[in-house]
Amino acid sequence: MGRKDSRYVIPSKTRQEVEIEPVRSTRIYEEIVRQIKALITEGKLRSGDQLPPERELAAEFKVSRTSVREALRTLESLGLIAIRPGGGTFVREASVESLIEPLARVILNQREAIVELFEARRLLEPAIAALASLRATHDEIREMERILEEQAEEVRAGKTGIAQDAAFHAAIAGSTHNRAILRIVNVLMDLLAQSREETLQTPGRPERSHRDHLRILKAIKAGDDHASHQAMLAHLHAVERLATGPAAGKKTLTPSSGRRGRR
After folding, report:
1. One-character DSSP codes across 78-116
2. Residue 208: in which H helix or E strand, if any?
3. Strand 88-91 and strand 81-84: pairing?
4. Structural Rg of the chain based on CA atoms
5. For residue 245, how many other CB atoms are within 10 A of its CB?
6. Quick check: 25 and 70 in contact, CB under 8 A?
7. Does residue 6 have a pLDDT over 50?
8. Confidence category of residue 163, pLDDT binned at 50, 70, 90
């Protein structure tokens, strides 16, 4: 159920704080989706807020109820609202996945976007590894070791070890104790799943990947944020060259962090 103070935020009494634009798009429902998403992004519609009924939204947007209904179904599929039959329509609690996954569906069909995804990994994952070196607990280190032992067994059996590859990167993200970081890394892993599977089919690549992971873990275990950053960056460069060509990843950031021991 919505909060007791749930309120409509679009009707005329609040129109001064939330401005509705007449819809002129030929694909009307998409324009409704855009405006409601913008209201959520800007914080004018918050988690738990109740939207007006279809007929009132149709009047505010100056469109048909059919267009409003289609827009609401789209927003629900994006995880931005919850439609409760007989109970109303409410803004859902925002999550990293609800913001990233719509983008993911677009990117999956654009091969050239892999270069941009690797750039995102190079910006994010070395810094995540550095943070993990300062925050990972002994139990989390042991779990990473277990994953890499399992990966070694898979590689020795002639398999790619892709499941353990993803699990290792997720374990590093999880050891930062930051849920947003973990979710973002999981989304990146999902987006690049096909590309990663292809690179791990390259002869010798699974063994190289395992060796890279061991170096990353060694640095994290030592509590050395600089070495962790560098080991992850080198690993990502090697994978990116296989996935996108030798010119990939030439522009990099130099880490500013220094060496620190585990606290």
Report:
1. TTSEEEETTTEEEEPPP-HHHHHHHHHHHHTT-TTHHHH
2. helix 205-221
3. antiparallel
4. 23
5. 10
6. no
7. no
8. confident
